[in-house]
Design goal:
By secondary structure, this protein is of the alpha/beta class. The protein contains 31 helices and 8 strands. The chain is about 60% helix and about 5% strand. The strands form 2 sheets. It has a 6-stranded mixed beta sheet, with helices on both faces. Strands 7-8 form a two-stranded antiparallel sheet. Strand 4, helix 3 and strand 5 form a beta-alpha-beta unit.
């Protein structure tokens, strides 16, 4: 079948975790989907478009990594159902099996399973360069002859082999009517039984029908009637699901073993793992491994302050100067005030934190790329197991440092339902990047710029302490929930550690830029909307409050010799206008509840807006202080405005006690509506998001109250 330029079809990328599948997806589509050197990063199917040449385009579907067609976790079921589903928009027309050449025997087992689905298949071999470095010559023709499919060596990290892969995919699609070689005899099930199941379900092959018959859970693409008919066939035929998987694996390995022996892949595997094992003797040591991990974390948080200080100061000064220039150039109208004190101030509250966001994600990307992130998972297994989880939970927890939303979705890799629920409930306690702007501004405001031992920044140490505080509270909550939530006991954690590889600096730089863009755009939308709403609520007030303030200060001005308000009176007037506006009335109403924590009404408003997005705190404070009289001529920056904020008795709002209290509140509070929506979707109930909000809110309030009273 000759493909035309208007034809668009689906290509599914499947493979074991760490095989390079998502890297290949990035190379084919240019979407630069996040790559992690451990299972569970791709927790749902991702789709992009690629041009195969001659005007032919294809949708490329990146499926979660899986070791076989016998799924155990939720993310593996995503791949499983996509491959078996006979209808729908994501049904693959060609399946590209991405296989690690250094782990060929295991990857070939999975590949033969895919081939038996009777769909066009292409094998993309990654890590071929590592095999060559070990001195082993990889016989691609022998592999292709054995599988009876095209075999293409690719290097997604360097973009090599993708043109050849596209040609092979086109050729496989054009030969779609050719029935591929079958690798499984299917002696465990009568042929007429499998034919009947295949007819009922509409799947592509008898082997797919065998999976329908052995599925442990109902498949979502089957209707209730189809499932009932299949169950009846199973009962009538006497088909037994037990032993099918074991016999299949043994039969497949029996056929693959002669090829593996011929290729002599053991030497390539040993050569690649020898170097990694030497490094792991240190990095996975029960003492030194944890010491090195703490040093790595210490470097990361020191770097956030050390490397980002100057660009942050430049940005802050630039926006302060730009705001002053705009105010001088524009007429005194409502729209000019909205532009300067609403939009410009809100935008400054976003852009100032771009350097820290970029540095954080750059370091995390390097740790993932080298393979060290997988070692962190291994190191934390024993600790997590002691509190009711296992090492697999460390993947969502680590992902939570970036964003809780994909982190909660990443819990799908946890097979045990109780452990998965606990991981979902505690993951938002990990300090995500949305908290970083709050941490940065408050730490720089209330923690002195001192050093320990002459080179360790105290501010960086406090930052690290906040992240560790969230992590250890997650452990405590996990232990409590392991007592309260009923379910199976903790399962053994098994994980394959990838070999160490040099980081891709270009990839790290690209990730830094992309994450900075995402932060500015995604957070910016929310913060700019909030800034506009806050400006409107701060410019107008109920009843005659605003008129009363104007009348009061007109009288004061008339009493002055030159009939003009003094600088101090202007300062007081701006603050009284703000306090008598709609936002001021709302803030004053909630102030009694938060004053015991050391917060004034402006901080209270910022806490409320933070429920839309935590980073909205900075934008809210920036807008409120731009409209109020808290700025000083000596320091018109956001930090200067916050430092100038006073209680009615003249005492500063931001002290060490109130600053630490607020930092602790943000460590523990659930202030992200999007995360709650994801938790509801993953747990299929509003019960758990409500419990999560209540327990995190109670933790935040109580711990912040204790901290304030201890330090005031």
């Amino acid at each position: 079948m000759r493909l035309m330029s208007e034809d668009v079809f689906n290509i599914a990328l499947v493979g074991n975790p760490n095989s390079g599948k998502t890297s290949l997806f990035n190379t084919l589509t240019g979407l630069n989907q996040k790559v992690g050197n451990f299972p569970g990063v791709t927790v749902d199917r991702k789709t992009g478009t690629t041009n195969l040449g001659n005007g032919v385009k294809a949708n490329v579907i990146d499926l979660p990594g899986t070791y076989s067609l016998y799924p155990k976790s939720t993310d593996e079921y995503v791949a499983y159902e996509t491959l078996l589903n006979p209808s729908g928009p994501a049904v693959p027309d060609v399946i590209v099996v991405v296989a690690d050449a250094t782990m060929l025997q295991r990857n070939l087992l999975f590949c033969t399973q895919i081939i038996d689905l009777n769909k066009p298949v292409v094998l993309a071999l990654t890590m071929v360069d590592l095999v060559a470095q070990s001195g082993v010559k990889l016989d691609l023709k022998a592999i292709a002859d054995f599988l009876d499919v095209a075999v293409v060596p690719v290097n997604p990290r360097l973009g090599k082999g993708t043109d050849e892969l596209k040609k092979a995919v086109l050729a496989a699609k054009e030969k779609a009517t050719v029935v591929p070689k079958a690798f499984l005899a299917l002696e465990e099930a009568p042929k007429d039984f499998l034919d009947a199941v295949q007819t009922i379900s509409g799947v592509s092959s008898p082997y797919a029908a065998l999976h329908i018959a052995t599925a442990k859970e109902p498949l979502r693409f089957l209707s209730a009637q189809q499932q009932a008919d299949i169950n009846k066939k199973i009962t009538d035929s006497g088909f037994s699901k037990t032993k099918v998987q074991t016999r299949e694996v043994m039969e497949r390995f029996g056929r693959i073993e002669p090829l593996s022996a011929k290729l002599d892949m053991r030497k390539a595997v040993d050569e690649q793992q020898r170097f990694s094992k030497k490094i792991d003797e240190i990095l996975l040591h029960k003492v030194w491994g944890n010491v090195i991990l703490l040093l790595v974390l210490l470097f990361m948080f020191q770097a956030i302050f050390w490397l980002a200080t100057y660009p942050m100061d430049w940005i802050d000064a630039g926006f302060s100067g730009g705001g002053a220039w705009l105010k001088a150039q524009l007429p005194e109208t409502w729209w000019a005030d909205l532009l300067v004190n609403g939009l410009w101030a809100g935008l400054g509250g976003i852009v100032i934190f771009v350097p820290q966001i970029a540095i954080l994600f750059g370091i995390i990307t390097i740790l993932e790329d080298t393979g060290y992130m997988a070692r962190i998972t291994f190191l934390t297994d024993k600790l997590l197991k002691s509190v009711g989880m296992n090492g697999k939970a460390s993947m969502p927890l680590i992902s939570g440092l970036a964003c809780a939303i994909p982190a909660v979705m990443a819990t799908r890799i946890i097979e045990n339902k109780k452990e998965r629920l606990i991981a979902i409930m505690v993951t938002p306690l990990m300090s995500c990047s949305a908290r970083l702007p709050v941490y940065i501004i408050l730490i720089s405001l209330v923690v002195p710029e001192a050093t320990v031992m002459g080179f360790l920044s105290v501010q960086g140490l406090v930052m690290m302490g906040l992240y560790l505080l969230g992590f250890f509270m997650a452990l405590i909550v996990s232990k409590v929930m392991s007592w309260l939530i009923k379910g199976e006991r903790t399962q053994m954690f098994l994980m394959e550690l990838p070999v160490y590889r040099a980081p891709r600096w270009r990839n790290a730089l690209h990730t830094m830029i992309e994450k900075a863009k995402i932060f500015v755009v995604d957070a910016g939308k929310v913060i700019m909307i909030i800034s506009i709403v806050l400006w409107a609520l701060a410019k107008f007030g109920p009843g005659g409050r605003e008129a009363a303030v104007e009348a009061k200060y007109a009288q004061l001005a008339g009493a002055n010799a030159d009939s003009v308000l003094t600088a101090e009176q202007e300062f007081d007037k701006e603050n009284e206008h703000l306090e008598n506006s709609y936002i001021g009335v709302m803030g004053k109403a909630i102030e009694p509840a938060i004053k015991p924590l050391g917060y004034d009404w402006k901080i209270g408003i910022a806490l409320i807006t933070s429920f839309a997005a935590r980073e909205a705190y900075v934008g809210t404070i920036s807008t409120l202080y731009s409209l109020g009289g808290d700025a000083t001529e000596d320091d018109p920056t956001l930090k200067g405005k916050m430092a100038a904020a006073k209680w009615p008795d003249g005492k500063p709002v931001y002290t060490l006690a109130s600053g630490v209290s607020l930092l602790i509140f943000y460590v523990f509070a659930m202030q992200c509506m999007s995360t709650l929506a994801i938790v509801k979707r993953e747990t299929q109930s509003w019960k758990w998001p409500v419990i999560q909000t209540l327990y995190m809110g109670a933790l935040a309030y109580i711990c912040a109250l204790i901290a304030f009273n201890l330090l005031k």
